[in-house]
Write a structure and sequence with these properties.
This protein is α/β, with parallel strands linked by helices. 26% of the residues lie in helices and 25% in strands. The chain has two domains: 2-152 and 202-305, 4-Layer Sandwich (Metallo-beta-lactamase, Chain A); 159-195, no CATH class. It has ten helices and 18 strands. Homodimer.
Length: 318
């Protein structure tokens, strides 16, 4: 699982930061998932190492322009390029109507299937490897945060140990790799988990923007390996944050601390903290790290590989 930040500014783009978009690359599935799609996102993808042909799912947090104005352009380009099979789009009420109107008035016709899913809190997508859920945040309009959970996997299968036990190769190996219990022809009962290494704990990513501090974000981020959280304002500007229902650095850090996450990556910064101003972005990072030391600050095209956790012993949590 690899995260690429395509836009880390709030409201409007700057010379160094585009508006909101985060890509999640899943190499094992050759898939690319996108979270928000601000204006210019397709240009950011072209400037990155991502392959738009792998784009399969887009998750929209809310209907503000800096999170959706790039969506129609990206979808249209994918259609003209002809290299996308299908795209599922998830987001709040009104997203489907927005895309239909944009398509109608721009006379855009897609050459590939697009399906829009109106989300409600809870699980919104699941396959054999991942579960995606969403929850309400606290913003001026309905806004959702997302949580991607990778399912736990059985540990590495010890082929040499299986051979030493004279277990015949073939379909039985597949069953044992999955941790199943198998009865051999000679009557022996083999527990697959005894031939596998420690369980590989699935990774968890939470994406929370736009929002002021709220319990919804804490719940989505609980025990996450990575929390991507907006930090539009410095703590000094907390009154403005409450008025506009955005987060300060300290709100993001408190969310990470209470949720027990392993890494906080802040994004969605106000252009008011540009170099040379009284408060700069480096000051925002210091504020957050004072509360949650494992904090880093995103920048456009930053790539973060989500590390895998392993259970020390298969029965540790028992």
């Amino acid at each position: 699982m690899q995260i690429t930040f395509l836009g880390t500014s709030s409201g409007v783009p700057t010379r160094s930061r585009n508006v909101s978009s985060v890509a999640l690359r899943l190499p094992q599935r050759a898939e690319l998932w996108l979270f928000d799609c601000g204006e210019g996102t397709q240009h950011q993808i072209l400037r990155s190492d991502l392959k738009v042909s792998q784009l399969s799912r887009i998750f929209i947090t809310h209907m503000h322009g800096d999170h959706i104005f790039g969506l129609m352009g990206l979808l249209a380009s994918c259609g003209l390029a002809g290299n996308v099979d299908k795209i599922d789009i998830y987001g709040p009420s009104g997203l489907n109507e927005y895309l239909q109107a944009a398509s109608r008035y721009s006379h855009t016709h897609f050459s590939y299937p697009i399906k829009v899913h109106t989300v409600q809190p809870g699980v919104i997508y699941e396959n054999d490897e991942f579960t995606v859920s969403c929850g309400l945040l606290h913003h001026r309009i309905p806004a959702f945060g997302y949580r991607v959970t990778e399912k736990d996997r059985t540990g590495r299968f010890d082929i040499e140990k299986a051979k030493a036990l004279e277990i015949p190769s073939g379909p039985i190996y597949g069953q044992l790799k999955r941790g199943e219990t198998v009865t051999l022809e000679d009557g022996r009962v083999i527990n697959g988990s005894e031939l596998c290494g420690p369980t590989e704990i699935g990774r968890k990513i939470a994406y929370c923007t736009d929002t002021v501090y709220c319990n919804g974000a804490v719940q989505l981020a609980e025990d996450a390996d990575v929390l991507i959280h907006e930090a539009t304002f410095a703590h000094q500007d907390s009154e403005m944050a409450f008025q506009r229902l955005h987060s300060t650095t300290t709100m993001a850090a408190q969310t990470a601390h209470i949720a027990g996450v392993r890494k906080l990556i802040m994004t969605h910064f106000s252009p008011r903290y540009a170099p040379g101003n009284i408060i700069e972005l480096k000051d925002l990072l210091k504020e957050a790290k004072a509360i949650f030391p494992k904090t880093i600050m995103a920048h456009d095209f930053m790539v973060y590989d989500v590390p895998r956790r392993r259970e020390i012993e298969s029965n540790v949590s028992a």
